[in-house]
Proteasome subunit beta
Amino acid sequence: MSIFEYNGSAVVAMVGKNCFAIASDRRLGVNLQTVATDFQRIFKIHDKLYIGLSGLATDVQTLHQRLVFRHKLYHLREERDMKPQTFASLVSAMLYEKRFGPYFCMPVIAGLGDDDVPFICTMDAIGAKELAKDFVVSGTASESLYGACESMYKPDMEPEELFETISQALLSSVDRDCLSGWGGYVVLVTPTEVQERTLKGRMD
């Protein structure tokens, strides 16, 4: 079994019209045994920038703490928040730095850049970036997430439609993956507000 499948995970980010949504499942497991049903995989860096971390749960928490620390240093020095593209480069550099003993995490980064243009990207465990204009996925449920997102995604969705689309894609995908599931957590970010919602899913 791959170390990336040890805890199970499903993370997806999707763009809409001047907005984005990022969602994850809530299951923390050890192989097929469920340990917790409220595990956090999506973290706020600042009001318009979020990161979702799939992979090994201990590395998820370690990497999150290091990223928050690096962003606070940047904020102290520059007196402004980091742009999503800059943050993606920071994450990529941090992962590549550890390439001989990597963090077993595959990040999904989503943010609003200049003029509220949404930016999303994902990368592998050693920081190779993959940019997209529509959606990115990560985790053990990524194959079924690709299929669900391909069939449901439409360009320039309004926030409510985007929320509905990403929620349905996530819920239908984790039902097809026994290592992720137990509901979902969605963050919807527009230029004026941030909405956090919890989804109820199949509890088996």
